[in-house]
């Protein structure tokens, strides 16, 4: 049983820490190498990349802390754009693997809700269920269901649908079918997260366009539902989430840094109109002597750089605290 003050993130960290117990470090490193090779290989594949317990343990140790933080950031942005008392009444996580998005939703929206994780890898679902046993809410509230994306004719209606780090593994036809199915199932919001690379951004834009065509509003990161103002091929919209590295994480990934930054791209689209859309900080703010430079994506579609100086008083102090990915200006 958890101590009452332990956050879901801490519970997840402890659950992950026990994961490679008994596995010699060289064997853990070998499983990670195999995983990296599979993910660098030609995807999509016809069969799950996560084939056995060693694969999923390596995935959970090597990637899950980072995908958890990325989805948590995306859901935080969704919460910031949703009506103040909004919390999803149900959650479907497609290609959920070991359950990173379920832990993230548990963190951002703490009220209990029926949750289903769909994935075609049984070992991933088994490990997800095992990790979730560390949290009473997740232990009882989550169904782990084996399902192949593309084969299912439809998905059950639910308030929140998440698709995190999955589109990259699908063919263009399956990506389109999945986004359409997610849009058809979501009564509240769809959140898609991909790696923060140029091609990850392109897949997010493809999903964003499909969600808008299906009648959704873009709640985050964009402060509007018009076309993305980035000229294709010149840049890509992405963000960064800090991931603290446990000793286990350092052992598996090598290196000694206490943290790493996970770059990700995302879209959170809602059936409801987002509240008071504000600009978003789309690069790391540059702090200079007496001024802060903020690169913004504006509600009146366009990119802009604003300089906030000491003369702006409280706004300047807020700008010094502003983070890449935050809405701007802060709410009073
Ligand atoms: C990179 S992992 C992401 C897992 C999890 N969503 C996360 O953010 O950590 C991709 C997941 O998608 C699942 N997946 C890929 N293609 C699939 C398909 N055709 N049907 C069902 N699941 C699939 C994989 O088994 C894997 O668990």
> What is the number of helices?
11
According to DSSP, the number of beta strands is 13
- The secondary-structure class comes to alpha/beta
Model regions low in confidence, pLDDT < 50 over at least 5 residues: none
Strand content: 15-25%
Q: What average pLDDT do the residues reach?
A: 91
Q: Percent helix among the residues? A: 25-40%
Approximate shape: globular
Element order, helices and strands? HHHHEHEHHEEHEHEEHEEEEEHE
Distance between the termini: 39 Å
From the alpha carbons, calculate the radius of gyration and give it in angstroms: 20 Å
Present as ligands are: S-adenosylmethionine
Main beta-sheet annotation: 8 strands, mixed
What does this structure look like?
With 332 residues, this protein is α/β, with parallel strands linked by helices. It has helices spanning 8-17, 25-40, 53-62, 64-81, 100-108, 122-132, 136-141, 172-185, 198-213, 247-253, 314-321, and strands at residues 91-94, 115-119, 142-146, 158-164, 186-195, 217-220, 239-244, 259-270, 279-281, 286-288, 291-298, 302-309, 327-328. The chain has eleven helices and 13 strands. Strands 1, 2, 3, 4, 5, 6, 7 and 8 form an eight-stranded mixed β-sheet that branches. Strands 9, 10, 11, 12 and 13 form a five-stranded antiparallel β-sheet that branches. Helix 2 (25-40) packs across helix 3 (53-62). The mean pLDDT is 91. Bound molecules: S-adenosylmethionine. S-adenosylmethionine is lined by residues 48, 50, 64, 67, 95-97, 100-101, 119-121, 124, 148-150, 164-166, 169.
């Amino acid at each position: 049983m958890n101590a009452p003050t332990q956050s879901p993130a801490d519970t997840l960290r402890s659950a992950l820490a026990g994961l490679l117990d008994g596995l010699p470090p060289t064997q853990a490193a070998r499983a990670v190498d195999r995983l990296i090779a599979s993910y660098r290989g030609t995807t999509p594949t016809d069969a799950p990349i996560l084939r056995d317990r060693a694969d999923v343990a390596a995935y959970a140790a090597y990637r899950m802390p980072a995908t958890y933080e990325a989805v948590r950031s995306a859901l935080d942005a969704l919460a910031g754009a949703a009506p103040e008392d909004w919390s999803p009444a149900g959650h479907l996580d497609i290609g959920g693997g070991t359950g990173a998005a379920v832990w993230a939703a548990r963190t951002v929206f703490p009220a209990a809700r029926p949750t289903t994780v769909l994935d075609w890898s049984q070992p991933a679902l088994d490990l997800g269920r095992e990790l979730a046993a560390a949290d009473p809410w997740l232990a009882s509230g989550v169904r782990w269901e084996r399902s192949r994306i593309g084969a299912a004719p439809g998905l059950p209606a639910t308030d929140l649908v998440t698709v995190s780090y999955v589109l990259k593994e699908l063919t263009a036809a399956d990506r389109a079918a999945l986004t359409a199915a997610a849009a058809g199932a979501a009564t509240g919001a769809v959140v898609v997260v991909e790696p923060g690379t140029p091609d990850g951004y392109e897949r997010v834009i493809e999903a964003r366009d499909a969600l808008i065509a299906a009648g959704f509003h873009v709640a985050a990161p964009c402060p509007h539902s018009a076309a993305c103002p980035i000229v294709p091929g010149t840049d890509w919209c992405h963000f960064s989430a800090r991931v603290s590295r446990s000793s286990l994480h350092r052992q598996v990934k090598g290196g000694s840094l206490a943290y790493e930054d996970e770059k990700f791209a995302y879209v959170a689209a809602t059936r409801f109109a987002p509240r008071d859309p504000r600009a978003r900080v789309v690069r790391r703010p540059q702090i200079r002597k007496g001024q802060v430079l903020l690169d913004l994506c504006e509600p009146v579609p366009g990119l802009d750089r604003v300089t906030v100086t000491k003369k702006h008083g409280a706004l300047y102090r807020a700008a010094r605290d502003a983070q890449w990915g935050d809405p701007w200006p802060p709410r009073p």
